[in-house]
Write a structure and sequence with these properties.
Layout: H1 4-11, H2 25-37, H3 42-49, E1 52-57, E2 60-64, H4 68-82
Antiparallel strand pairs: 1-2
């Protein structure tokens, strides 16, 4: 699971405390990848790195995946880790 400290940092990345949008999303995703890199095996992290953070809605991150295979791996093996 992503460390709560990272989630707090993400929430604080905008001046008004709102969910990050647009140009802020790559930096948010970079921080999330850093946090996940500390707890995931390299093979699993490789699938997460293929994703792109498209939006944050309330407490939910919308990830874009490059293909169906990556989506299946993330949903079946990594869902519990990244939620």
């Amino acid at each position: 699971m992503i460390d709560n400290g990272v989630l707090e940092e993400v929430a604080a990345m905008t001046d008004d405390g709102a969910a990050p949008t647009g140009a802020e999303l790559p930096e948010v995703w970079k921080r999330c990848l850093g946090a996940l890199g500390e707890s995931l095996p390299t093979q699993n992290l490789a699938f997460i790195r293929l994703c792109r953070l498209d939006a944050v809605v309330n407490d939910t991150a919308l990830l874009a995946v490059p293909n169906e295979f990556a989506k299946e791996i993330i949903e079946s093996r990594l869902r519990a880790v990244i939620t």
